[in-house]
Design a protein that fits this description.
This protein is mainly α and 188 residues long. The protein is built from nine helices and no strands.
């Protein structure tokens, strides 16, 4: 393993254990038995480590779900797929996503821009899918933007209460989200 990856892994571990605010760069360096100056050789700041964690998480986990969702023709199946996969593959698999989402406000605009681009893509996917269902006369009258934010928010809030030691319940949680959202959206 290269040194940059070691720093990344240790920082991630400490951010998750102690929180981003309570993890000093000196603590990261000390735990790796390197100097703080040695750490600066690989990362300019603690924020740069967080940016890499966030950007890699989005690229590795979130983007593939968006890509796969966009390929599904039936809008109801697309929503089901998105909800299930966003919940089970991102929100309940790894607490790293909690760090990335919760601490995103700490990132400089240049780093936020890359991540927000994918979040915007997510919003558009969900809103456009709801619009397709509306065009087919399959949903109740609803503000599509609010409904899209509600769905994404409902699922994303999971990071604040989900017990990652109980990953086996992720499928049941995802199915519950599908039922709650679609039963409130679709016409009877």
């Amino acid at each position: 393993m290269n040194k940059k990856q070691e720093i990344y892994d240790k920082a991630l571990e400490l951010f998750l254990e102690q929180g981003y605010d309570h993890t000093a760069l000196s603590r990261i360096a000390e735990s790796l038995n390197i100097t703080k100056a040695g750490l600066y050789h690989y990362f300019k700041s603690k924020e740069d480590i967080l940016a890499l964690i966030s950007e890699q998480g989005v690229a590795q986990d979130f983007v593939p779900i968006l890509d796969a969702s966009e390929k599904i023709q039936d809008p109801e199946e697309r929503l089901k797929f998105f909800i299930r996969n966003y919940t089970t593959k991102i929100l309940t698999r790894d607490p790293t996503v909690r760090l990335a989402i919760h601490e995103m406000k700490r990132l400089k605009p240049v780093h936020q821009k890359k991540i927000l681009k994918e979040w915007r893509r997510c919003l558009d996917l969900v809103r456009n899918t709801i619009s397709e269902l509306d065009e087919r006369g399959r949903i109740v009258k609803v503000n599509k933007t609010y409904a899209a934010f509600a769905l994404i928010g409902m699922c994303t809030w999971t990071i604040y209460w989900f017990d990652y030691r109980r990953r086996e319940s992720a499928e049941e949680l995802a199915d519950t989200y599908v039922k709650l959202f679609l039963n409130g959206l679709l016409k009877k």
